[in-house]
Automatic annotation (TrEMBL), chains A, B:
One of its GO terms (molecular function) is serine-type peptidase activity. This is dipeptidase E. Its main location: cytoplasm. Its EC number is 3.4.13.21. It is found in: Cytoplasm. InterPro entries: Class_I_gatase-like (IPR029062), Peptidase_S51 (IPR005320).
Length: 222, 222
């Protein structure tokens, strides 16, 4: 039997209320990356100010003992991915992030590193959305138009990060998250959606997925 | 001076907490349509169950004294638009709605009726989003992929319906609506965004726009 070389840590949200950037998942990141990885390649495309974002991410990873290079500082982003030991894609706007991944031709490069070379991939929020089949279940506003909603396809399902349970006391009439995902499943041939509450993480190793954190998740199936 | 024949009633939300379908804006709809209009053409594409949706809309308009035809029941939707006296596009999922308008080639037909024939157009929620330049500022989940985010362009700005002010007590870490619209304006050449709170309506007559309702709106400019 072929084993899929796939190691992913998919985080619902980068910051938990009251905590610092990546603080709630530092230990998970450290045990996921382990001692062999020395440097992480950061993908800051989900936010507009890439320099500031890289600085924030660098501080967090250096405090864990890892060096961090931001792909936006590389002369050749595809080359930077090909040489990377580990990849971290941060949150922000999922449409902006996916469009940049297409514009810079990084989709096949990242897939190859994860599936063939087996390097560890960490995604948070938008970085978790783009790791799945498609960004059809992002919560973000479509501020730009990517050439497709198909994403990296590192797992065979979709994720809804920052999942919020319906609030029975709300007077707001916009759709609840549950209604939105249900509307997605009214469409033909739509995959399952794992709704990850804030604080939740999904660890994927080969064909095995493990839910981490204490807030849990809901699985929506068509 | 050329006068633009344009009459639009753009509603933030079809149902206000505690009320029935279109109940909070019945009087505005009645005075907007007046006595000359006898029948309204309804566009139900934002929801999956078009028959059920048309039934709900029919009841609401019949209670105001107007007949209602649903475009999904017409043999030729373009033809139905061309013969319409007034159009009402209801809410639901904005991506699904816009994709259907493109698939059925209704964009130019509706524009022509509004700009050249001057028929009244009512939009609610998703039906308000598609009346603007683009759906870049919808709140909806991108459950399908329309061929473009460009919309009917009946007004020269975008709208964010169901606008929610930032909640300082929230522990949720997803972006506030204000942050989302601000991210939109980080992109080049983006138009102004009128954020319509629930309960708000925008009446557009020629080149004049009037805010109705008591909840008010915020104007975001790049
Ligand atoms: Ca986001
Ligand atoms: Ca909606």
């Amino acid at each position: 039997m072929m084993t899929i070389k796939r190691r992913l840590l998919l985080i619902s949200n980068s910051t938990l209320h009251g905590g610092g950037y990546l603080e709630h998942c530092k230990q998970h990141i450290q045990s996921f990356l382990g001692a062999e990885v020395k440097r992480v390649l950061f993908v800051p495309y989900a936010l507009h100010d890439r320099d500031a974002y890289a600085k924030t991410a660098r501080q967090a990873f250096e405090s864990l003992g890892y060096g961090l290079d931001s792909v936006h500082e590389a002369e050749n982003p595809v080359d930077a991915v090909q040489k990377s030991q580990a990849i971290f894609i941060g949150g922000g706007n999922t449409f902006r992030l996916l469009k940049a991944l297409y514009d810079k031709n990084l989709i096949p490069a990242i897939r190859k590193k994860v599936f063939e070379d087996g390097i560890p991939y960490i995604g948070s929020s938008a970085g978790t959305n783009v790791a799945t089949i498609s960004i059809n279940t992002t919560n973000d506003m479509p501020i730009v138009y990517p050439p497709s909603l198909q994403a990296l396809g590192l797992v065979p399902f979709n994720i809804n990060p920052h999942y919020l349970d319906p609030d029975v006391n709300s007077k707001h009439m916009g759709e609840t998250r549950e209604q939105r995902i249900t509307q997605y499943h009214e469409e033909q041939d739509t995959p399952s959606v794992l709704a990850l509450r804030e604080g939740g993480l999904l660890l994927v190793e080969g064909d095995k997925a493990t839910l981490l954190g204490i807030t849990g998740a809901r699985l929506f199936q068509r």
